Amino acid sequence: MIGKLKGLIDSYGEDFVILDVGGVGYQVHCSSRTLQHLPSPGEAAVLSIETYVREDQIKLFGFRTDQEREWFRLLQTVQGVGAKVALAVLGTLAPADLANAIALRDKAAVSRTPGVGPKVAERIVTELKDKAPAFANVDPAVVHLAGAVDDQRAPRPVADAISALVNLGYGQPQAAAAIASASRSAGEGAETAQLIRLGLKELAK
Protein backbone atom coordinates (compact mmCIF):
# COMPACT_ATOMS: atom_id res chain seq x y z
CA MET A 1 0.00 0.00 0.00
CA ILE A 2 1.18 3.53 -0.76
CA GLY A 3 1.14 5.74 2.36
CA LYS A 4 3.06 8.81 1.18
CA LEU A 5 4.32 10.28 -2.09
CA LYS A 6 7.02 12.90 -2.57
CA GLY A 7 7.68 14.30 -6.01
CA LEU A 8 7.12 17.15 -8.46
CA ILE A 9 3.74 18.50 -9.52
CA ASP A 10 3.29 17.53 -13.16
CA SER A 11 -0.22 18.85 -13.88
CA TYR A 12 -3.67 19.41 -12.41
CA GLY A 13 -7.09 17.98 -13.28
CA GLU A 14 -10.51 19.01 -12.01
CA ASP A 15 -10.26 16.94 -8.80
CA PHE A 16 -6.79 15.43 -9.02
CA VAL A 17 -3.10 16.16 -9.43
CA ILE A 18 -0.46 14.20 -11.35
CA LEU A 19 2.56 13.81 -9.08
CA ASP A 20 5.81 12.85 -10.82
CA VAL A 21 7.78 10.54 -8.53
CA GLY A 22 11.03 9.47 -10.14
CA GLY A 23 9.57 9.65 -13.63
CA VAL A 24 6.32 7.85 -12.76
CA GLY A 25 3.18 10.00 -12.80
CA TYR A 26 0.69 9.15 -10.05
CA GLN A 27 -2.87 10.43 -10.40
CA VAL A 28 -3.91 11.51 -6.89
CA HIS A 29 -7.46 12.65 -6.10
CA CYS A 30 -7.61 15.53 -3.60
CA SER A 31 -10.14 17.84 -1.98
CA SER A 32 -10.53 21.30 -3.54
CA ARG A 33 -8.89 22.77 -0.41
CA THR A 34 -5.82 20.54 -0.80
CA LEU A 35 -5.53 21.31 -4.52
CA GLN A 36 -5.62 25.07 -3.81
CA HIS A 37 -2.72 24.76 -1.38
CA LEU A 38 -0.44 22.69 -3.62
CA PRO A 39 2.38 24.46 -5.53
CA SER A 40 2.67 25.18 -9.25
CA PRO A 41 3.67 22.51 -11.80
CA GLY A 42 7.36 21.70 -11.60
CA GLU A 43 7.55 22.37 -7.86
CA ALA A 44 8.00 19.75 -5.12
CA ALA A 45 5.12 18.44 -3.02
CA VAL A 46 4.51 15.76 -0.40
CA LEU A 47 1.13 14.09 0.05
CA SER A 48 -0.14 11.59 2.62
CA ILE A 49 -1.88 8.89 0.61
CA GLU A 50 -4.89 6.66 1.14
CA THR A 51 -4.87 3.77 -1.36
CA TYR A 52 -8.14 2.22 -2.51
CA VAL A 53 -7.85 -1.13 -4.27
CA ARG A 54 -10.89 -2.41 -6.15
CA GLU A 55 -11.24 -5.33 -8.55
CA ASP A 56 -11.21 -3.00 -11.53
CA GLN A 57 -9.09 -0.09 -10.31
CA ILE A 58 -6.55 1.31 -7.89
CA LYS A 59 -7.32 4.85 -6.73
CA LEU A 60 -5.09 7.20 -4.74
CA PHE A 61 -6.39 9.97 -2.48
CA GLY A 62 -3.94 12.63 -1.33
CA PHE A 63 -3.85 14.89 1.74
CA ARG A 64 -1.60 17.67 2.98
CA THR A 65 -1.41 16.18 6.49
CA ASP A 66 -1.85 12.81 8.18
CA GLN A 67 -4.63 14.40 10.26
CA GLU A 68 -6.61 15.28 7.13
CA ARG A 69 -6.22 11.67 5.96
CA GLU A 70 -7.45 10.45 9.34
CA TRP A 71 -10.59 12.61 8.98
CA PHE A 72 -11.11 11.17 5.48
CA ARG A 73 -11.15 7.70 7.05
CA LEU A 74 -13.35 8.74 9.98
CA LEU A 75 -15.94 10.41 7.75
CA GLN A 76 -16.37 7.21 5.77
CA THR A 77 -17.32 5.28 8.90
CA VAL A 78 -20.58 7.28 8.80
CA GLN A 79 -23.47 5.62 6.99
CA GLY A 80 -24.03 7.19 3.58
CA VAL A 81 -20.59 8.86 3.40
CA GLY A 82 -18.25 7.56 0.73
CA ALA A 83 -14.93 8.84 -0.57
CA LYS A 84 -16.55 11.51 -2.78
CA VAL A 85 -18.61 13.02 0.06
CA ALA A 86 -15.69 12.79 2.52
CA LEU A 87 -13.48 14.74 0.08
CA ALA A 88 -16.24 17.32 -0.43
CA VAL A 89 -16.54 17.84 3.35
CA LEU A 90 -12.77 18.29 3.66
CA GLY A 91 -12.90 20.71 0.74
CA THR A 92 -15.43 22.83 2.63
CA LEU A 93 -14.02 22.59 6.17
CA ALA A 94 -10.38 22.37 7.26
CA PRO A 95 -9.77 19.46 9.67
CA ALA A 96 -9.69 21.77 12.72
CA ASP A 97 -12.93 23.50 11.66
CA LEU A 98 -14.59 20.13 11.00
CA ALA A 99 -13.53 18.89 14.46
CA ASN A 100 -14.92 22.03 16.07
CA ALA A 101 -18.19 21.79 14.12
CA ILE A 102 -18.72 18.16 15.16
CA ALA A 103 -17.69 18.79 18.77
CA LEU A 104 -20.15 21.69 18.96
CA ARG A 105 -22.91 19.78 17.10
CA ASP A 106 -22.87 22.48 14.43
CA LYS A 107 -24.86 20.64 11.75
CA ALA A 108 -25.28 23.85 9.71
CA ALA A 109 -21.51 24.15 9.16
CA VAL A 110 -21.25 20.56 7.91
CA SER A 111 -24.29 20.90 5.64
CA ARG A 112 -22.61 23.80 3.78
CA THR A 113 -20.76 21.05 1.90
CA PRO A 114 -22.12 20.63 -1.65
CA GLY A 115 -24.04 17.36 -1.83
CA VAL A 116 -24.44 17.02 1.94
CA GLY A 117 -28.03 17.46 3.07
CA PRO A 118 -29.33 17.93 6.62
CA LYS A 119 -29.75 14.17 7.21
CA VAL A 120 -26.17 13.29 6.27
CA ALA A 121 -24.85 16.29 8.25
CA GLU A 122 -26.87 15.09 11.25
CA ARG A 123 -25.36 11.59 10.94
CA ILE A 124 -21.80 12.97 10.64
CA VAL A 125 -22.22 15.13 13.75
CA THR A 126 -23.96 12.40 15.74
CA GLU A 127 -21.79 9.42 14.82
CA LEU A 128 -18.45 11.24 15.17
CA LYS A 129 -19.28 13.35 18.24
CA ASP A 130 -17.22 11.11 20.56
CA LYS A 131 -14.16 11.27 18.30
CA ALA A 132 -14.15 14.99 17.45
CA PRO A 133 -13.21 16.50 20.86
CA ALA A 134 -9.76 14.89 20.64
CA PHE A 135 -9.06 17.00 17.52
CA ALA A 136 -11.03 20.13 18.43
CA ASN A 137 -9.42 23.29 19.77
CA VAL A 138 -12.48 24.54 21.63
CA ASP A 139 -13.01 24.76 25.38
CA PRO A 140 -14.05 21.30 26.70
CA ALA A 141 -16.72 23.05 28.79
CA VAL A 142 -18.27 24.42 25.60
CA VAL A 143 -18.18 20.96 23.99
CA HIS A 144 -19.87 19.52 27.07
CA LEU A 145 -22.51 22.24 27.08
CA ALA A 146 -23.19 21.89 23.34
CA GLY A 147 -23.72 18.17 23.88
CA ALA A 148 -26.01 18.78 26.84
CA VAL A 149 -28.12 21.24 24.84
CA ASP A 150 -28.28 18.88 21.86
CA ASP A 151 -29.35 15.97 24.08
CA GLN A 152 -31.77 18.23 26.01
CA ARG A 153 -29.85 17.67 29.27
CA ALA A 154 -28.82 21.30 29.84
CA PRO A 155 -30.39 23.26 32.73
CA ARG A 156 -33.46 25.17 31.51
CA PRO A 157 -31.99 28.69 32.07
CA VAL A 158 -28.87 27.72 30.10
CA ALA A 159 -30.85 26.23 27.20
CA ASP A 160 -33.19 29.24 27.17
CA ALA A 161 -30.28 31.70 27.20
CA ILE A 162 -28.60 29.96 24.24
CA SER A 163 -31.92 29.90 22.39
CA ALA A 164 -32.34 33.65 23.04
CA LEU A 165 -28.90 34.43 21.59
CA VAL A 166 -29.59 32.26 18.55
CA ASN A 167 -32.86 34.18 18.03
CA LEU A 168 -30.81 37.40 18.12
CA GLY A 169 -28.87 36.14 15.12
CA TYR A 170 -25.82 34.49 16.71
CA GLY A 171 -24.75 31.03 15.55
CA GLN A 172 -25.36 28.07 17.86
CA PRO A 173 -21.61 27.49 18.50
CA GLN A 174 -21.05 31.20 19.30
CA ALA A 175 -24.07 31.26 21.61
CA ALA A 176 -23.01 28.05 23.39
CA ALA A 177 -19.48 29.39 23.94
CA ALA A 178 -20.77 32.71 25.29
CA ILE A 179 -23.24 31.07 27.67
CA ALA A 180 -20.66 28.53 28.84
CA SER A 181 -18.43 31.45 29.81
CA ALA A 182 -21.40 33.27 31.39
CA SER A 183 -22.30 30.17 33.42
CA ARG A 184 -18.78 29.99 34.80
CA SER A 185 -18.95 33.65 35.84
CA ALA A 186 -22.46 33.50 37.30
CA GLY A 187 -22.18 30.11 38.98
CA GLU A 188 -24.88 27.50 39.37
CA GLY A 189 -28.45 28.65 39.74
CA ALA A 190 -28.07 31.72 37.53
CA GLU A 191 -31.28 32.96 35.93
CA THR A 192 -31.83 33.13 32.18
CA ALA A 193 -31.81 36.95 32.04
CA GLN A 194 -28.47 37.14 33.87
CA LEU A 195 -26.93 34.53 31.55
CA ILE A 196 -28.15 36.41 28.48
CA ARG A 197 -26.72 39.68 29.78
CA LEU A 198 -23.34 38.11 30.57
CA GLY A 199 -23.39 36.18 27.28
CA LEU A 200 -23.93 39.37 25.27
CA LYS A 201 -21.03 41.00 27.10
CA GLU A 202 -18.88 38.01 26.20
CA LEU A 203 -19.89 38.28 22.53
CA ALA A 204 -19.12 42.01 22.51
CA LYS A 205 -15.50 41.48 23.59
From TrEMBL:
Gene3D superfamilies xref list: 5' to 3' exonuclease, C-terminal subdomain, DNA helicase RuvA subunit, C-terminal domain, Nucleic acid-binding proteins
Species of the source: Bradyrhizobium cajani
UniProt xrefs under NCBIfam families: ruvA (TIGR00084)
Protein name: Holliday junction branch migration complex subunit RuvA
Assigned GO CC terms: cytoplasm; Holliday junction helicase complex; Holliday junction resolvase complex
UniProt family annotation: Belongs to the RuvA family.
Gene designation per UniProt: ruvA
All residue ranges annotated as the Helix-hairpin-helix DNA-binding motif class domain in the record: 73-92, 108-127
Pfam families in the record: HHH_5 (PF14520), RuvA_C (PF07499), RuvA_N (PF01330)
Described purpose of this protein according to its UniProt entry: The RuvA-RuvB-RuvC complex processes Holliday junction (HJ) DNA during genetic recombination and DNA repair, while the RuvA-RuvB complex plays an important role in the rescue of blocked DNA replication forks via replication fork reversal (RFR). RuvA specifically binds to HJ cruciform DNA, conferring on it an open structure. The RuvB hexamer acts as an ATP-dependent pump, pulling dsDNA into and through the RuvAB complex. HJ branch migration allows RuvC to scan DNA until it finds its consensus sequence, where it cleaves and resolves the cruciform DNA.
Stretch list, region Domain I: 1-64
Oligomeric form and interacting partners: Homotetramer. Forms an RuvA(8)-RuvB(12)-Holliday junction (HJ) complex. HJ DNA is sandwiched between 2 RuvA tetramers; dsDNA enters through RuvA and exits via RuvB. An RuvB hexamer assembles on each DNA strand where it exits the tetramer. Each RuvB hexamer is contacted by two RuvA subunits (via domain III) on 2 adjacent RuvB subunits; this complex drives branch migration. In the full resolvosome a probable DNA-RuvA(4)-RuvB(12)-RuvC(2) complex forms which resolves the HJ.
Protein location: Cytoplasm
Highest taxon of source: Bacteria
Region called Domain III, residue ranges: 156-205
